User: Which sequence fits this backbone?
């Protein structure tokens, strides 16, 4: 029975490692395409050519052109770059704020914990997408307002996980011994708290990035997110939908790009294969 358990555990670990490797490779390829295309192509994503509308993919335009004759290869790269930049900024901001406040709540005075717990409860009283919609309506089409709104929601997950882990470790004999020996807060964080928190951040960051991208696309889908002529995946889906019968490849491209970037984040988070 012990050998069987070890074998199953090893298989499970191998599945997670393979999943993360596939997610990392896929995400890297998408990043290379999104960030290298502007450097390698002189084509402007907003440049229109009304004589070449809805053209099929060819040697000059690898993904064809849209209903305004704009190059889809360049526009899709712009849309992916915008989504990936939003995801990176939101994950970084949310992680820094959430981890910092989580450790303060777990190790600080009780009133700090109660105050922060009340703030998170207040934010969670509204559905996340509704709160983002409210912020988006204040300054329509603002990338930075969307960034603030999404980060305001996502830091809570980092906060709750960090607080739970830190509260458990803070009562351990190892931490108590370090305190008795006179070690400061930074040493406790580096030696005891961070090694336990860091593995969880990979999963939180991966799913948080996917969530940020989907939120941004959802807002574009209802015309309250990024505004034309900027390229954004959700907005592109709405713009191309009327042409699904004449140019189905045009609608498929942002849908596939959105699915691939979300899939790469989920795989990177270590989701097991069934």
Assistant:
């Amino acid at each position: 029975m012990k050998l069987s358990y070890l074998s199953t555990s090893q298989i499970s670990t191998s599945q997670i490692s393979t999943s993360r490797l596939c997610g990392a490779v896929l995400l890297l390829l998408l990043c290379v395409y999104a960030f290298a295309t502007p450097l390698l192509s002189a084509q402007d994503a907003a440049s229109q050519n009304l004589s070449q509308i809805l053209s099929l993919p060819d040697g000059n335009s690898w993904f064809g052109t849209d209903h305004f004759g704009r190059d889809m290869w360049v526009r899709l790269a712009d849309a992916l770059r915008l989504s990936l930049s939003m995801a990176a900024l939101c994950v970084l901001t949310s992680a820094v704020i959430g981890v910092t406040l989580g450790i303060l709540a777990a190790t600080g005075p009780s009133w700090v914990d109660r105050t922060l717990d009340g703030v998170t409860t207040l934010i969670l009283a509204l559905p996340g997408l509704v709160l983002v919609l409210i912020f988006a309506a204040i300054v329509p089409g603002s990338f930075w307002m969307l960034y603030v709104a999404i980060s305001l929601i996502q830091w809570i997950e980092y906060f709750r996980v960090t607080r739970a882990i830190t509260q458990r470790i803070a009562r351990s004999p190892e931490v108590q011994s370090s305190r008795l020996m006179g070690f400061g807060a930074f040493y406790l964080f580096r030696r005891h708290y961070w090694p336990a928190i860091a593995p969880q951040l990979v999963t939180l960051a991966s799913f948080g990035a996917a969530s940020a991208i989907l939120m941004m696309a959802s807002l574009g889908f209802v015309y309250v997110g990024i505004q034309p002529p900027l390229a954004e995946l959700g907005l592109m889906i709405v713009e191309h939908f009327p042409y699904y019968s004449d140019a189905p490849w045009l609608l498929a491209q942002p849908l596939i790009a959105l699915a691939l970037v979300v899939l790469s984040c989920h795989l990177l988070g270590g989701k097991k294969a069934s």
Remarks:
- Residues 2-40 form the longest helix (39 residues).
